[in-house]
């Protein structure tokens, strides 16, 4: 599984160096102790009234929590995080609702053209959570649906992200 913080940092650095007008990535900090996470979370709660926690090396929605109170965060840190593992705190993303009332987010795919070495947008789709759920991952009960028209800035952003992580395929 990918290291979420390394990817996030690479993308943010690349975007800031290349004067991209907008970042599609949420504000993220990495903490190396429960006490640090609690202190950093104060700022997230002040700004957004909640925080998303992630284990840096995870996938398929495992280790991802939408935390809505400081008491919930304390319990989560005590029960779910190994003291030696870093903790990612992330700004909650405002997700739009799908036709069934569940939240949805967007996933994009890009690839590096073998002939030109240029980054190329390939496809995008919505990931939909079941009604009342936070996670949109397919492995967590989510499903995909088509995006009728993909915004040109999202296309450009997906190509920049592929360059930022020096990858061949991004999804």
- The Cα radius of gyration reads 17 Å
- The best one-word shape is globular
Structural class: alpha+beta
Could you tell me the mean pLDDT?
Answer: 83
The portion of residues forming beta strands comes to: 25-35%
What percent of the residues sit in helical stretches (DSSP H or I)?
25-40%
The number of strands is 9
Order of helices and strands: HEHEEHEEEEEHE
Distance N to C terminus? 13 Å
User: Uncertain runs with pLDDT below 50, 5 residues or more?
Assistant: none
**Major beta-sheet overview:** 5 strands, antiparallel
Number of helices, where a helix is a run of at least 4 consecutive DSSP H or I residues: 4
Description:
By secondary structure, the chain is of the alpha+beta class. Helices cover 31% and strands 26% of the residues. The protein is built from four helices and nine strands; from the N terminus they run αβαββαβββββαβ. The strands form two sheets. Strands 5, 6, 7, 8 and 9 form a five-stranded antiparallel β-sheet that branches. A four-stranded antiparallel β-sheet has the order 1-4-2-3, with helices on both faces. The longest helix is centred in the N-terminal third of the chain and has 15 residues.
């Amino acid at each position: 599984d990918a290291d979420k913080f390394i990817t996030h940092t690479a993308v943010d650095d690349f975007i800031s160096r290349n004067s991209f007008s907008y970042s599609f990535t949420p504000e993220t900090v990495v903490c190396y102790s429960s006490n640090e996470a609690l202190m950093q979370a104060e700022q997230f709660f002040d700004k957004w009234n909640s925080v998303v926690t992630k284990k840096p090396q995870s996938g398929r929605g495992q280790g991802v929590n939408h935390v809505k109170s400081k008491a919930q965060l304390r319990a989560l840190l005590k029960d779910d995080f190994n003291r030696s593992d870093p903790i990612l705190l992330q700004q909650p993303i405002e997700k739009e609702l799908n036709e069934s009332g569940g939240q949805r987010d967007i996933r994009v795919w890009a690839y590096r053209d073998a002939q030109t070495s240029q980054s190329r947008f390939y496809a995008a789709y919505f990931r939909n959570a079941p009604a009342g759920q936070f996670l949109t991952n397919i492995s967590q009960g989510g499903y995909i649906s088509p995006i009728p028209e993909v915004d040109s800035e999202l296309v450009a952003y997906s190509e920049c992200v592929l360059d930022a992580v020096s990858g061949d395929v991004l999804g």
